[in-house]
Amino acid sequence: IKKQVFTKEELQVDTDYFLRFKEANPFTIESVGIQHVNLKAASDEIRKRKDVDTGGVSKQTLAQNKAALADATFVHLHNHTQFSVLQSTISVPALVKAAAEKGMPAVAITDHANMMGAFHFVNNVLNHNKAAEAKNAEAIEKGETPTATVIKPIIGVEFFVCDDHTDKTRKDSGYQVVFLAKNKQGYHNLAKMSSIAYTKGFYYVPRIDRNIVEQYKENLIVLTGNMYGEIPSKILNIGEKQAEEALLWWKEQFGEDFYIELMRHGQENEDRVNEVLVKMAAQHQVKMVATNNTYYVNKKDAHAHDILLCVKDAEKLATPIGRGRGFRYGMPNHEYYFKSADEMKALFTDVPDAIINIQEVIDKIESYKLAREVLLPKFDISEEFLVAEDNEDGGKRGENKYLRHLTYVGAEKRYGELTPDITERLDFELQTIEKTGYPGYFLIVQDFIAEARRRDVSVGPGRGSAAGSA
Fold it and tell me: Is residue 61 situated within a structural domain?
């Protein structure tokens, strides 16, 4: 003010204000309560702390790890879809699309105890791959670099593994453990365990136990799971000794197909568990993999997912998340989305092996199809109707020919005279059966129906569209 840095308009004062202020304050105004302190030593200490992260990994090592992970492959091995009923907002096509958009060469489906989405999942991936391969071929033909991602489908299940799946005298929902099928036989083993969980082990949730695991463990890969997995849960709630005993059992069963799963959703209990898991992994030579427990595709979908959980539990959205009376279940934060490879690598820069080992898991898994033709017994037909080409290409010419013969013989008995309208209708129906590839089914059904009538066994009225046939 004494130097008139401010204008009278800025201070909203009259012209004589500056003169009066100088007369009232003729001396330099001294600072009050301000003391200069040399903070160089404190700054150096802070700088040293910044050079080392909480895991004791130096900045130099982190930089080296980051460089090593630049070309490493990351794919999500722990994903839930809408077939984890009322627990995930991800549709099967959305899961495949997310993996493709993020350039991931594989993606897993690991719904809770069921495989209802497996067929849709594999078909969606194969359809995507067909389009991607065509796009890449077109790019190569034009002399361009192919960019479309071909995806390997990984079928898995997150099972509830309890002490005794037949015991329904007490509630025991077990531990959540992730199983991945290495091949078609592994897929069948998953299907068998899922069937047992629903038909024999269902009590609050579909469950299996260790005996079932031992019986159907072939061609499967096991991950330790989330915080509700056996090993992480025992670390948190029981003790490291019991957790270590569990780890040794799983390792004994699955050997090199057993992996410790590390998750980082920004939760304090995860940090504590991960510290112990990393130590156990080194002590017992068990490899680690990084995962994200995915329930929605984008981070912005967290609110919609929270609404879904409220629908599941018949709770109000306004009810606070927590434990105990007056609270409801909900995710602790918004980190349960389908993260990019770069996001996951950034989370695990201090544990690069957890990213690098994922490629090993991918390499262990074979691609296979689930779609197949309907399997029917081969129907023996008279030699006069056989067609030689059928033996070469598996065609159904002979069956179609014999079915046509039986149809017209039967039509003459039923209608007597075959009018043009009847003939046109019969030809249309026979062509439809020929296109769908089901002549064998009609031959088999007519065979046992004819035999039933021959033996005076009652035959019920026909049902469905076939019963309205000419």
Answer: no
